[in-house]
Amino acid sequence: MKLILFLFIFPVLCFSQTIKVNYIFTTDSYQKQEILYADFNSSYYYNEPYAGLNSAKDKVEGTEITLVQKDIKLNKIEFFQEKESQTILYQLKYKGEKRLITDSVPNIDWVIVKKEVKKINGYICNKAITHFRGRDYEAWFTPEIPITFGPFKFKGLPGLILILNSTGGNSNKSWIATNMATLDKDFQMPPVCTNCINMTIREFVEYKQKLREEASIARLPKGYANVKTSYKRLSIETVYEWETEDEEKK
């Protein structure tokens, strides 16, 4: 999916207040809007719901079948972060129930490419690269807006992320800031859910994986009842740290 996007960012911001940043999130299959609210110490981020179809096809190799997710149904997900904490809380409705997920995100090890600088809609931006949960990323951030947050779960740079792209791998991801504004001083971040089902990120990922494997078995063609199946992740996070640790122990 080739897209031409233009940034329309307000040039005058008051950093003592909360800022609102609109991002356009794009994959090979779809595009949708995501919103960041952030101040110096905390952030609230959410994405808009989306429903569509995945054009990727199942793959059969001998006695192994790789199944891809056909329907793309994304509910609203809300992320809550604190500057000095590695824990991210995010809430969503999944299988008809509200869930609050606790994610102990590993430290994102950014490498700032000091020689690469460019202006994005009037802001001087620096390039940074990193690897996060199975994907390589390239970010353009501006120290002129000294807020350490960005799209999704990304943070830790000395400035707001305006552009973020995955590099290599399947189903590339990108975020581009399209609009920014300061909010009224009375603005308050939305509250975290108090009556949700609490799960760790590992519990939630493994729960989803179990349901998908059961659904995959039901989709197998005749004659493949006892073959090995695998599920291809096309999500932002393709490998989690405990999966790498478990593989290393084998």
How would you characterize this protein structure?
- With 250 residues, this protein is mostly beta strands.
- It has one domain: outer membrane lipoprotein receptor (LolB), chain A, CATH 2.50.20.
- It has two helices and 17 strands.
- It has a twelve-stranded mixed beta sheet with strand order 11-12-13-14-15-1-2-3-8-9-10-16.
- Strand 8 (77-82) and strand 9 form a beta hairpin.
- The protein is globular and about 60 Å long.
- Mean pLDDT is 83; it is low at 1-6.
The strand line-up of the biggest sheet is 11-12-13-14-15-1-2-3-8-9-10-16
Helix content: 10-25%
Largest β sheet strand count, sense and barrel closure = 12 strands, mixed
Strand content: 35-45%
Please report the distance between the alpha carbons of the first and last residues: 39 Å
Which CATH architecture would you pick? Answer: Clam
Give the CATH level 1 class. Answer: Mainly Beta
Rg estimate, integer Å:
20 Å
Helix/strand order? EEEEEEEEEEEEEEEEHEH
Number of strands: 17
Structural class: mainly beta
- Rough shape? globular
Q: Do you know the CATH topology? A: outer membrane lipoprotein receptor (LolB), chain A
Mean pLDDT: 83
Number of helices: 2
Which segments are poorly predicted (pLDDT under 50) over 5 or more consecutive residues? 1-6
Give the tally of structural domains. Answer: 1
